[in-house]
Design brief:
This protein is α/β, with parallel strands linked by helices. It has two domains: about 160 residues, no CATH class; about 130 residues, CBS-domain, CATH 3.10.580. It is built from 13 helices and twelve strands. Strands 1-2-3-4 form a four-stranded mixed beta sheet. Strands 5-12-11-10 form a four-stranded mixed beta sheet. A four-stranded mixed beta sheet has the order 6-7-8-9.
Length: about 400
């Protein structure tokens, strides 16, 4: 996943919270499943409107539980000195978009454990609330929602605790292996192998459920397995690419930057001006004062439909400079690769305050292919690219 984006819902403790469009799908599926298949059976005799009302409430509170889990990761990560770009809720749960990796095994364990701790705490709270309501002979309708949330947060904790990347249990295993072996890279490769294996197990189980018993939930299981396998493979490949890039500096792969183009020109003019440039070329754009305010790639501009290019300005499709990592020409390339995680895959190279070049994901991949062909063995079907992986 090269970064999931969506509608900004607001900020919590200075962390931007976003919702991907697919969140509406999961909200609808949860509400429908509860309103049709769970609460009518748990609450016989209740009015259908009450079943649906409780279903919608339970679905929203469960998404709130997912958000709380990710906030646990994000807040502790920030205390460890890791920049947090935000949290996005989407089809498969939540993603904390962290810029960079924990610097020590202990920092990784604390960041990871925080999310698991939140889920365990929420499960305990909802189980306790369920027990209290049951002992006080509260109506079944009052007990149904906390009971379901207790079960779901327990399952969320158990699933995330599985020791396979990119799950929290896999990151805790990674932290332990890192401390034991003294090598983050070796730890990543080991934990990623387990992540791929677990992903395959989920895919096989999902397909078997569909074929043998017609369980449509198998589609969901297989989708999660595919996602986990892809992210685990990408993290392993990131390590392999890092080894291939060892000894290279940013200047070795950067493309010399053309002069910044005005941010207000149309996409049509930009495409015609750079019609012979490589499709992955990134160009800085500047405001009226000549200050660089972002980067725009030829690929992104070419993706704008031809009939709209006259009406769209570059600044509307550019990646803002605040979201673009910067580097100096003499910096080790591996350091820049780390900072490009969770970004759009573009970086601006500065000599002092003067832009002198750009680095894109394509530049890095070309260098990796030349320097280390072993980084390109065992590609995984559907695996996300090696740079720009948000934390799952």
């Amino acid at each position: 996943m090269g970064g999931i984006h969506g509608l900004t819902l607001g900020h919590i403790a200075g962390i931007r919270i976003r919702a991907d469009w697919s969140l509406l799908l999961i909200l609808g599926l949860l509400t429908g499943g509860l309103g049709v298949g769970v609460f009518p059976g748990a609450l016989p005799g209740e009015a259908p409107w009450l079943d649906w009302l409780l279903a919608a409430l339970a679905a929203v509170l469960f998404l709130g539980s997912l958000l709380a889990h990710e906030l646990g990761h994000a807040l502790v990560a920030r205390r460890q000195g890791i920049a947090v770009d935000g949290i996005t809720l989407w089809l498969l749960g939540g993603v904390s978009e962290l810029r960079g990796n924990p610097g020590t095994p202990g920092a990784e364990a604390r960041t990871t454990g925080a999310g698991l701790g939140v889920s365990a705490g929420l499960a305990a709270v909802f189980w306790g609330l369920t027990g209290i309501l049951t002992m006080t002979a509260a109506p079944n309708a009052a007990v149904a929602v906390p009971a379901w949330l207790a079960l779901m947060n327990t399952l969320l904790f158990a699933f995330n605790a599985v020791p396979a990347l990119p799950l929290d249990g896999g990151r805790l295993l990674h932290a332990g292996l890192w401390r034991w072996r003294g090598s983050r890279d070796r730890a990543t490769l080991s934990a990623a192998r387990l992540g791929r294996a677990f992903g395959v197990i989920l895919i096989v189980a999902g397909v078997a459920g569909i074929v043998l018993v017609g369980a449509l939930g198998g589609i969901w299981l297989a989708l999660i397995g595919w996602f986990l396998m892809g992210v685990a493979t990408a993290e392993a490949r990131q390590v392999q690419i890092g080894s291939a890039l060892e000894g290279l500096h940013v200047r070795d792969v950067m493309a010399s930057s053309p002069a910044p183009v005005p941010a207000w020109i149309t996409v049509d003019l930009f495409v015609r001006s750079f019609s012979t440039a490589r499709i992955d070329t990134a160009v800085p754009i500047a405001d009226l004062g000549g200050r660089v305010v972002g980067l725009v790639s030829v690929r992104r501009a070419a993706a704008v439909p031809p009939w709209r290019r006259d009406a769209v300005r570059l600044q509307e499709i550019a990646v803002g400079v605040e979201s673009v990592p910067t580097a100096s020409p003499d910096e080790p390339l591996s350091d820049l690769v780390e900072r490009m995680r969770g970004t759009a895959g573009q970086a601006l190279v500065l000599d002092g305050d003067r832009p002198v070049g750009t680095v894109t994901l394509a530049d890095i991949l070309r260098a990796a292919r030349l320097m280390g062909p072993t980084a390109w063995r065992r590609p995984a079907p559907g695996a996300p690219g090696p740079v720009g992986q948000p934390r799952a």
